[in-house]
């Protein structure tokens, strides 16, 4: 189950990176900041799961 979660989180991170690029091009800095926080949260969840599996 945790491997499936990691897969979903990584997919979400990829989508967020695309949205971040769009926000940069559109100069939507507040949106960019929110997306970066969201991405950091997913990255932390992945790390948490990976550390739990060791």
Question: How would you sum up this structure, described in words?
Answer:
The protein is built from two helices and no strands. It has 54 residues and is an all-alpha fold. The protein has one domain (2-53). The longest helix is centred in the N-terminal third of the chain and has 25 residues, at 2-26.
List keywords for this structure.
54 residues, mainly alpha, 93% helix
List the helices and strands and how they pair.
Blueprint (H helix, E strand, L loop, with lengths): L1 H25 L2 H25 L1
Roughly what is the average pLDDT, rounded to an integer?
Answer: 94
Q: Work out the strand percent.
A: under 5%
Major beta-sheet overview: none
Span between termini: 15 Å
Measured as a percent range, the helix fraction is over 70%
Structural class: mainly alpha
Low-confidence stretches: none
Number of helical stretches of at least 4 residues: 2
* Total E-strand runs: 0
- What is the CA-atom radius of gyration, in angstroms? 13 Å
Element order, helices and strands? Answer: HH
Shape: elongated
The overall number of domains is: 1
């Amino acid at each position: 189950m945790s491997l499936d979660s990691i897969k979903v989180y990584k997919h979400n991170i990829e989508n967020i990176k695309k949205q971040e690029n769009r926000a940069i091009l559109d100069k939507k800095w507040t949106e960019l900041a929110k997306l970066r926080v969201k991405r950091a949260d997913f990255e932390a969840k992945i790390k948490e799961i990976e550390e739990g599996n060791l």
